[in-house]
Amino acid sequence: MSAAVTSPPPFDDPAGTWNRRFSATGYLFGTEPNSWLLDHADVWQAGQRVLSVADGEGRNSVWLAQRGLTVDAFDISEVGVRKARDFARIAGVKVNFAVADIATLDWPDNMYDGVAAIFIQFAEPALRARIFDGMVRCLKPGGTLVLQGYTPRQLEYRTGGPPVESHLYTSQLLRDAFGQLEIVELHEYEATLDEGTGHRGHSALIGMVARKPA
Ligand SMILES: C[S@@+](CC[C@H](N)C(=O)[O-])C[C@H]1O[C@@H](n2cnc3c(N)ncnc32)[C@H](O)[C@@H]1O
User: Fold this and answer.
1) What separation in Å is there between the alpha carbon of 77 and the centre of ligand 1?
2) In the predicted model, is pLDDT for residue 5 greater than 50?
3) pLDDT digits over 109-142, tens only?
4) Which long-range contacts (CB under 8 A, 24 or more apart) does 15-21 make?
5) Which residue among 11, 55, 168 is best mutated to probe the pocket of ligand 1, counting the most ligand atoms within 8 A of its Cβ?
6) Is 76 in the pocket of ligand 1 (CB under 6 A)?
7) Ligand 1 neighbour 63 (Cβ under 6 A)
8) How far does residue 118's CA lie from ligand 1's centre (Å)?
9) I need a labelling partner for 178 at 20 to 30 A (CA). Which of 9, 89, 112, 151 fits?
């Protein structure tokens, strides 16, 4: 009889795990912005202030800054943030980067015109609920959240994202979690991603745009 070999959960040591992943040459998720963000960022106007949550190596924050937005961004990985800072410098834009653990973040009240939450599915349900509350809290009235994630069907494709169903999003989960927001768009769809080597291939996706009532 052979015992099943199990790998350690990928979420035990997020800083170490992501520092290792981002230490490889190149940009794990590429240098182009996420497509859902690209297609929906016109909800924000130049000069407005946007927070890019768990921003990784900077592909989304740098692109948002190139659109004339004032961008704050944070990630738990100091390697990722260092690469993001280099990326912003080379791109000639300013982004206010910070290394921070979202689990202990002190979310400000009513500060941002926008929040970008692109593939932040590292959080188990209890932490996720705190993160979602924090993202709503830090939006100004009238501010807009743009969010992208994978649905449970992604477990069949395994082309990116966490291999754990409880971390994945359904439309109902997002509707329930963001009941305080007006859902502008909520779309489950399948598409072929080409985001570096990290998100590549046929994928089961969900995108949301939601506004905090003015
Ligand atoms: C799938 S990557 C997405 C990165 C980026 N949003 C993008 O779309 O390119 C998930 C990101 O979450 C970050 N992360 C994981 N746990 C975190 C935590 N506790 N606090 C802040 N960031 C975290 C990782 O370092 C990684 O950059």
Assistant:
1) 8
2) no
3) 999 999 999 999 999 999 999 999 999 999 999 9
4) 15/76, 15/77, 15/78, 15/101, 18/56, 18/75, 18/76, 18/77, 18/79, 18/80, 19/77, 19/78, 19/79, 19/80, 21/77, 21/198
5) 55
6) yes
7) no
8) 9
9) 9
